[in-house]
Amino acid sequence: MKTKETHQHDIGCLQAIEAFYAYLDGEIEDPKSIEEFEHHMRHCRSCYSRAGVEKLLSQRIADSAKTKTPEMLQNRLRNLMDEIE
Ligand SMILES: [Zn+2]
After folding, report:
1. What is the pTM assigned to this prediction?
2. Three-class SS of residue 33?
3. Whose CB has fewer CB within 10 Å in the chain, the N or C terminal residue?
């Protein structure tokens, strides 16, 4: 039996937004959580626009003296944004 899409563990929109803030704060360390978040953002345009992801990200980066977002996550997030656009 085959499902149309693999929904191993699809997180909800609310969780995705929460994860996004945690992500920006560098509080997500679990690679599985990162993947779940990225997976959701790729497939849910409403979250993408609701979060104002791009705006928040550039604010954070402009504010880089204060930002806690690890470079690795910033890069991953940038790549993710490129993929979505
Ligand atoms: Zn969503």
Report:
1. 0.65
2. helix
3. N
Measured in Å, residue 44 CA sits from the centre of ligand 1 at 5
Q: What's the 15 CA to ligand 1 centre distance in angstroms?
A: 8
Distance 41 CA to ligand 1 centre (A): 7
Residue range 2-48, pLDDT digits in tens: 445 555 567 888 888 888 888 888 888 888 988 998 899 888 888 87
Q: For residue 61, what are the CA distances in angstroms to 16, 23, 33, 80, 85? A: 20, 13, 22, 16, 19
- For residue 2, the CA-to-ligand 1 centroid distance in Å is 24
Instruction: Give distance in angstroms: CA of 51 to centre of ligand 1.
Output: 9
